[in-house]
Amino acid sequence: MGSVLEFRGISCSTLGTYFEELGGKKQMDIFPILYKGSGWSGEILKEEVIELTKVISVNKVLIRFSADSDAELNELIKRYRYKTTRIGG
After folding, report:
1. Hey, how many other C-beta atoms are within 10 angstroms of the C-beta on 80?
2. Rounded to an integer, what distance in angstroms lies between the CA atom of residue 65 and that of residue 59?
3. Boundaries of every domain in the chain
4. pLDDT value of residue 22
Protein backbone atom coordinates (compact mmCIF):
# COMPACT_ATOMS: atom_id res chain seq x y z
CA MET A 1 0.00 0.00 0.00
CA GLY A 2 1.28 3.48 -0.77
CA SER A 3 0.43 7.12 -1.18
CA VAL A 4 2.29 10.20 -2.47
CA LEU A 5 1.80 13.58 -0.78
CA GLU A 6 3.20 17.04 -1.48
CA PHE A 7 4.54 19.34 1.24
CA ARG A 8 5.47 22.99 0.73
CA GLY A 9 7.64 25.33 2.76
CA ILE A 10 9.33 22.62 4.88
CA SER A 11 12.94 21.63 4.21
CA CYS A 12 13.93 18.08 3.25
CA SER A 13 16.06 17.80 6.37
CA THR A 14 13.12 18.72 8.60
CA LEU A 15 10.83 16.29 6.78
CA GLY A 16 13.48 13.59 7.27
CA THR A 17 13.67 14.39 10.98
CA TYR A 18 9.93 13.76 11.21
CA PHE A 19 10.43 10.22 9.87
CA GLU A 20 13.16 9.67 12.45
CA GLU A 21 10.87 10.94 15.23
CA LEU A 22 8.33 8.33 14.12
CA GLY A 23 10.94 5.58 14.49
CA GLY A 24 12.35 5.49 10.97
CA LYS A 25 16.00 4.92 10.11
CA LYS A 26 17.61 6.68 7.15
CA GLN A 27 18.68 4.19 4.47
CA MET A 28 19.89 6.51 1.67
CA ASP A 29 21.31 10.04 1.50
CA ILE A 30 20.45 10.74 -2.14
CA PHE A 31 17.05 11.09 -3.82
CA PRO A 32 14.93 9.19 -3.24
CA ILE A 33 15.93 9.57 0.43
CA LEU A 34 14.58 6.41 2.06
CA TYR A 35 13.50 5.95 5.69
CA LYS A 36 12.34 2.60 7.06
CA GLY A 37 10.33 1.94 10.18
CA SER A 38 8.54 -1.08 11.61
CA GLY A 39 6.06 -2.07 8.89
CA TRP A 40 6.44 1.16 6.91
CA SER A 41 8.74 3.23 4.73
CA GLY A 42 8.89 6.82 3.57
CA GLU A 43 10.72 8.16 0.53
CA ILE A 44 11.50 11.82 -0.04
CA LEU A 45 11.26 11.63 -3.82
CA LYS A 46 12.29 15.11 -4.92
CA GLU A 47 12.43 18.75 -4.00
CA GLU A 48 11.90 21.70 -6.29
CA VAL A 49 11.33 25.43 -5.95
CA ILE A 50 8.03 26.98 -7.01
CA GLU A 51 7.87 30.69 -7.79
CA LEU A 52 4.63 32.12 -6.43
CA THR A 53 5.52 35.63 -7.62
CA LYS A 54 8.65 37.26 -9.03
CA VAL A 55 10.00 37.72 -5.48
CA ILE A 56 8.34 34.91 -3.49
CA SER A 57 9.25 31.26 -3.88
CA VAL A 58 8.76 28.14 -1.76
CA ASN A 59 10.04 24.61 -1.90
CA LYS A 60 7.83 21.68 -2.87
CA VAL A 61 8.72 18.18 -1.66
CA LEU A 62 7.08 14.95 -2.81
CA ILE A 63 6.99 12.07 -0.33
CA ARG A 64 5.87 8.47 -0.91
CA PHE A 65 4.46 6.67 2.13
CA SER A 66 4.23 2.87 2.14
CA ALA A 67 3.07 0.40 4.78
CA ASP A 68 2.20 -3.27 5.18
CA SER A 69 -1.53 -2.53 5.49
CA ASP A 70 -4.00 0.26 4.79
CA ALA A 71 -4.53 0.77 8.51
CA GLU A 72 -0.77 1.20 9.12
CA LEU A 73 -0.50 3.53 6.11
CA ASN A 74 -3.36 5.71 7.34
CA GLU A 75 -1.86 5.89 10.84
CA LEU A 76 1.59 6.78 9.45
CA ILE A 77 0.19 9.57 7.29
CA LYS A 78 -1.95 10.88 10.16
CA ARG A 79 1.03 11.02 12.54
CA TYR A 80 3.30 12.55 9.85
CA ARG A 81 0.79 15.21 8.84
CA TYR A 82 0.38 16.17 12.50
CA LYS A 83 4.11 16.98 12.56
CA THR A 84 3.85 19.09 9.40
CA THR A 85 0.88 21.14 10.58
CA ARG A 86 1.67 24.85 10.74
CA ILE A 87 -0.65 27.23 12.55
CA GLY A 88 -0.53 30.78 11.23
CA GLY A 89 -0.93 33.83 13.38
Report:
1. 21
2. 19
3. 2-57+70-84
4. 98
